[in-house]
């Protein structure tokens, strides 16, 4: 009855919450799913999923299994799975994800790189991320 029991540690079983009104500065490393309703400034490394709530603001480079953005993220994002930007969400930064969904009204400003989980394809050359060309830069290069 009072003996130690061995529990199965599931990444989704424990949640970490940065509540509305909370302000966190520094690097955050967590093995569970994370929800941010407050503000964080600093890198986020999460083995589970990350949710940025409607009131949440992350001035962070984010690494996670999956990311759902209903608030605001300013920084680069790397997710193994799906990145979803809801209609109230904003993401300003470059992303690397297996799947990207931007709902109508959602904002994404940056460069995206889509990679499958099984990205180790032989014979495929990786191209570097570059800034997209604008008409003005193309015209000046042609005139120059």
UniProtKB/TrEMBL annotation:
Pfam families for the chain: Bactofilin
Lineage: superkingdom: Bacteria
Family of this protein: Belongs to the bactofilin family.
Protein name: Cell shape determination protein CcmA
């Amino acid at each position: 009855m009072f003996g130690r029991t061995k529990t199965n540690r599931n990444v989704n079983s424990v949640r970490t919450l940065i509540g509305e009104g909370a302000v966190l500065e520094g690097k955050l490393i967590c093995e569970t799913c994370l929800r941010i309703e407050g503000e964080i400034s600093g890198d986020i490394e999460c083995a589970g999923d990350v949710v940025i709530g409607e009131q949440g603001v992350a001035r962070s480079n984010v690494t996670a299994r999956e990311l759902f953005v209903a608030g605001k993220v300013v920084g680069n994002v790397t997710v193994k799975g799906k990145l979803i930007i809801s209609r109230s969400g904003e993401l300003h930064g470059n992303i690397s994800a297996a799947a990207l969904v931007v709902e109508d009204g959602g904002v994404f400003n940056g460069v995206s790189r889509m990679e499958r989980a099984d990205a180790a394809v032989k014979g495929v050359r990786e191209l570097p991320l570059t800034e997209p060309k604008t008409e003005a830069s193309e015209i000046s290069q042609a005139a120059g």
